[in-house]
Amino acid sequence: MSRPNFAKANGVELAWDSFGDPGATPLVLVMGLGASMIAWDEVFCAHLAAAANVHVIRFDNRDVGLSTSMSQLGVPDVQALMMKALARQSFTTPYTLVDMANDVAGLMDTLGIARAHIVGASMGGAIGQEMAIHHADRMLSFTSIMSSTGDPSLPPPTPEALAVLFTPAPQTLEAYLPHYAKVWRVLRGPHPFPEDEARDAERGRAVFERGLNPAGTARQLAAIFASGNRKPALRNTHVPTLVIHGDADPLVPVEAGIDVSAAIPDAKLLRLPTMGHALPVSLWPAVIEGIANHTARNAPTR
After folding, report:
1. Fewer C-beta neighbours within 10 Å, C or N terminus of the chain?
2. Mean of the pLDDT values across residues 35-55?
3. What's residue 84's pLDDT?
4. For the residues of the chain, what is the DSSP string, one character each?
5. How far apart are CA 240 and CA 267, in angstroms?
6. Any idea where the AB hydrolase-1 domain is (predicted)?
């Protein structure tokens, strides 16, 4: 595990590290709900840096991993907020996905990056969408992976996926490891990925040792609910976009990826038939090739 750096950004401190040539075009990876930057596997990051000839930067979002925990903002009742969101009632949250997009822009400011390729997974894809809406001038390209516009008319998660999303993480390592394995067994979907299943114990231990922040995950989930439907705003964006989505995603069904690609003008869609709501090792080549081709088409002019 590489030693993280820390950067002030938008009033918070973000842990980050990087891969590849620091002189290459930057590519920033934005991770999803409750997941720290180590969910972007080091080998994946190194391969992406080499294949796309980019400087890959990954970081912990606020309220996860080693970045600032917003504990002073309290713990929202996410189920109550979800019901209000479904009923289209107004509510307030500790922060929004716009704030988290501003964190990414602030990180880029601190690192001296004027423009970068942005790649976001799940909630990270929604954060990338908010960047396309509010910080398009900072983006060379955008890749949205297994994400959604937030349109409430889209198909919901499967009951099993929704259940693991709302199941509190155990606070002891002994209980956490089987919990972690179950969560990812569900999220990877119906297709077997034995290489990833074999790594679950090691990955789960790394996540646990990095530190769990259930209250932070609740605040991030509240931010998702508060973001609402981004589709109308996305129709007016012009960031070159690639959408990657799995046909077997149980948490964010493939219809959501189709919706993202339809909402953003001229977006390209890459559907992977066996992919669920995860980035399994056997699909890394397809995902990396898709991103590398997309960034090459949208490389900065010298």
Report:
1. C
2. 97
3. 85
4. -PPPEEEEETTEEEEEEEES-TTSEEEEEE--TT--GGGS-HHHHHHHHHHHTEEEEEEPPTTSTTSPP-GGG----HHHHHHHHHTT-----S--HHHHHHHHHHHHHHTT-S-EEEEEETHHHHHHHHHHHH-GGGEEEEEEES-----TTSPPPPHHHHHHHHSPPPSSHHHHHHHHHHHHHHHT-SS--HHHHHHHHHHHHHHHHH---HHHHHHHHHHHHHH---HHHHTT----EEEEEETT-SSS-HHHHHHHHHHSTT-EEEEETT--SS--GGGHHHHHHHHHHHHHHTPPP-
5. 7
6. 26-278
pLDDT for 1 equals 52
What's the pLDDT at 88? 80
Given the structure tokens 């994400």, which residue do they identify?
147
Helix (H) or strand (E) holding 14: strand 12-19
297/125 Cα distance (integer angstroms): 20
Neighbours of 255 (CB within 10 A): 15
Residues in the chain: 302
Amino acid at 208: F
Longest dimension (CA), the chain: 53
Question: Which residue's structure tokens are 């869609």?
Answer: 269
* Rounded Cα distance, 230 and 151, in Å: 7
Count CB atoms within 10 A of the CB of residue 107.
23
Kindly list the structural domains of the chain, giving each domain's residue range(s) and its CATH number in brackets, ordered by start. Answer: 5-157+214-297 (3.40.50.1820)
| pTM across the whole model | 0.96
> Residues 130, 110: contact at Cβ < 8 Å?
no
Q: How many other β-carbons are positioned within 10 Å of the β-carbon of residue 79?
A: 11
Mean of pLDDT values over 71-98: 88
Give the position of tokens 């990876």: 29
